[in-house]
């Protein structure tokens, strides 16, 4: 179990690190600073703390669900799609300055994580609580992205 957790941690934090390459300088760019942002936009440090916590929880969740009697091919496919969507959002939003495309990506990611939360819930009721922060954070992030799309 510990090896699966470490593997998922490595893969998930690799996505965060790659995404961070597009985010670190972009949040202080003129383009981003001039956007009308939602009044509920949290301070910058919250994003890093949230994503760190979410990826730890998600990695433990994936390691646990993977060992249950589940279609592992489907689970890994969903995980890979999640990973790609998560990775894609940063460059699309921050590098290409495409909030509408970012909204489509983050909406798809939110739906996918919501699907995983409810689909796999019967296999690990209590462990599914580890996926809840990811889903809630994506709902918030989607609302932040949508605000930027509709108010700029």
Could you characterize what this model shows?
With 152 residues, this protein is mainly alpha-helical. The chain has one domain (2-151): Ferritin (Up-down Bundle). Helices cover 75% and strands 0% of the residues. Helix 1 packs antiparallel against helix 3 (44-66). The radius of gyration is 16 Å and the shape is elongated. The mean pLDDT is 94.
Task: Write a short abstract of this structure.
The chain has one domain: Up-down Bundle (Ferritin). 75% of the residues lie in helices and 0% in strands.
In round numbers, the mean pLDDT is 94
Helical residues, percent: over 70%
**Biggest sheet layout:** none
Shape: elongated
Supply the CATH architecture: Up-down Bundle
How many structural domains can be distinguished in the coordinates?
Answer: 1
Q: Which fold name corresponds to the CATH topology?
A: Ferritin
Q: CATH superfamily membership, which one? A: TspO/MBR protein
Beta content: under 5%
Task: Assign the CATH class.
Answer: Mainly Alpha
Indicate the topology.
Elements: H1 2-23, H2 30-33, H3 44-66, H4 72-95, H5 99-119, H6 132-151
Helix pairs in contact: 1-3, 1-4, 4-5, 5-6
Keywords:
single chain; 152 residues; mainly alpha; Ferritin; 75% helix
């Amino acid at each position: 179990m510990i090896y699966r957790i470490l593997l998922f941690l490595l893969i998930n934090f690799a996505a965060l690190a790659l995404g961070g390459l597009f985010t670190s300088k972009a949040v202080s760019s003129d383009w981003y600073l001039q956007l009308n942002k939602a009044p509920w936009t949290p301070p910058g440090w919250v994003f890093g703390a949230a994503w760190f916590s979410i990826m730890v929880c998600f990695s433990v969740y994936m390691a646990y669900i993977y060992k249950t009697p589940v279609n592992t091919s489907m689970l890994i496919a969903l995980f890979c799609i999640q990973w790609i969507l998560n990775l894609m959002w940063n460059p699309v939003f921050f590098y290409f300055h495409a909030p509408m495309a970012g909204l489509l990506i983050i909406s798809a990611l939110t739906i996918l994580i919501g699907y995983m939360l409810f689909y796999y819930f019967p296999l690990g009721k209590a462990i599914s609580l580890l996926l809840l922060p990811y889903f809630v954070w994506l709902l918030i992030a989607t609302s932040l992205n949508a605000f930027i799309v509709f108010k700029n």
